[in-house]
Amino acid sequence: MSDRTAPERDEGVDADGDDEIELADVTTLRTRGDLEGLLALARAHRTGTHGKARDMKSALDAYVAAAELGSAEAEHSAALFYLAGGPVPQDLKEGAARLRSAAEKGSTPAKVYLGNLYELGIHYAKDAEKADVWYRAAARAAQIKDAPDSPEYVRQMAELGSARDFLALSESGASKEELEPLLRKAKAHGYGLRVREAGDARPSMTDPVGAGADARPRPSGAEPPASVTPAPAPTPKAAPAKTDAAAKDLAPKDAPKKEPPKPKPSPKKPSRATPSRFTPGLGLVAFLYASLFVGAAAGAGYALTEGAKHLLLPRLGELPLIKTDVHYILPASLALFGVIPQLLVYRAGTVAKAFVGGALMAGVGWAAWGTGQAMFVASRGAQSLAFGVAGFLALLLALGVAGGAKPKREKKKPSVSVWSDVDDEP
Question: Is the whole-model pTM more than 0.70?
Fold first, then answer.
């Protein structure tokens, strides 16, 4: 599928095929508001036709003037000069701004290029969602009707220059002959910046607009337009040390090899799944909280018991659920306010083990009181409760020191993106 957004004249081909027209200078054409004349002048300087010398700086000046008159095509072409560098110093910020302007004016190649910048993390922070916004806008402009997850959609988007879909095709096992034209197309729409960055090399890019045109697929056996002066062949560069797998497969075989830099060992992060076996400091702090919870629960239970005995029972006669058995209030208070809050400072397994151990100790206290030889308090129930609380706290202390306490949470600093955008919706 060929790109229908940019007119054929942007490929260096005049609509009427006339090579002998006279073109005024940029200032005169800008004053007249002659948009078509500025575009023709830019093409003439790019290709060295119509009596004009091949001058990329003059071509850029004409494109900038045409962009000021509202041409999305010219804005996109000017953006390519700034993104590639050569006639002017490379300026990704200026190039991206002009790309956005061209995309908002309706340029499909600019929308694809912006999607690639976000997809690859070039100039902007890497953001797949923002890349999706621009890819979808380009698909709508190109009238792609297929479902986004279909092979047909991936193929058509790759032909538009989408780096994401080109890489998806390369991973699907497409042939080298099938990938070569798509790689050229992706490079002309920003993927070349990633390859250049990975290889730490500056490819020859004397005509970035022509490079984008050459990347468009032509019918087999067709010759390039006569009015286009082909750019000189780039000097072979050293193979990049790090690049995507697809670019590596299509790199020249006879290029001198460059040894990749040794990767820096990444620091090993401790596993969160394996807690420390011995945490005395953390265990003691957790036990302090456990003692406070149990003490507060015991105090609350005692106060509720006395209040129910001397205030509520004389007035109501009996209480809901417990009726006149107020001795159940203290154990219930210890369970609710002394056991459950332990989950804040101990692991759930630790609390469960301590609760079972406390219940066993309560049974020991009950049985000891019944022997008549180990009656430490007057009430059998009070002794059983005291044994249970003591066993519960003792196990919490031992298990907490052995790693059963919850670790202190570390505060994470919010990440700040280097690049920000006011509005990314086309």
Answer: no
pLDDT for position 137: 92
Higher per-residue confidence, 257 vs 409: 409
Specify whether the CB–CB gap between 115 and 406 falls below 8 A: no
Q: Indicate the angle between helix axes 56-68 and 72-84, nearest 10 degrees.
A: 140
Same domain, 98 and 54: yes
Two structure tokens written together for 147: 């479902």
Report CA-CA distances (Å) from 320 to 139, 326, 330, 353, 380: 70, 11, 16, 32, 25
Are 244 and 295 part of one and the same domain?
A: no
With respect to residue 274, please indicate whether it lies within any of the assigned structural domains: no
Sign of dihedral through CA atoms 323, 325, 326, 331? negative
Total domains in the fold of the chain: 2
User: Does 154 map to a domain?
Assistant: yes
Assess if residue 255 is contained within a domain: no
Q: Which residue has the tokens 């290709």?
A: 47
| Predicted confidence (pLDDT) at residue 20 exceeds the cutoff of 70 | no
